[in-house]
Amino acid sequence: MSIFRRFFSGSDLRAPLRPLYAAIVARGRDPAWYRDGAVPDTLDGRFDMIAAMLALVLIRLEAAGAPAREPSTLLTELFVDDMDGQLRQAGIGDVVVGKHIGKMMSALGGRITAYRAALAGAEDLPAALTRNLYRGAAPAPDALALVAGRMRAFHRQLADTPADTIIAGDLP
Known about the structure:
The protein is mainly α. It is built from nine helices and no strands.
């Protein structure tokens, strides 16, 4: 699709992906992550959890190949728009919002790389979670094991779910 057509068409190409993005956010805000998994219930902790869920979905869509490329891009754009709005709501000024968004996108990319490697067995998932989700401060072993187990299970469920089903917003 032409970039000009994307910017100047009257339709919102991201609209069909809003249910998926809402499902990802709902999954990331599940109280069990914070209560049982000891993910910090802070602005940063909530960002990290939503980014983790988004990373797993993007890893799954990546595996679907070319048909999922545009939905993945549009889904990432929804994430950027949401984070932009969250920053502005938190009082971050226009001058530095772009810089914060750049850092958030870099963080998302790092998480995708780390979780992809860990879920493929090339890296230790608890170590990747400690670095990326807990920002270096490891929680109690049982909380870390719970989060790692739930993330592995979600990753397996995503792999077993057709990409079209996921794109429609129906997460397992």
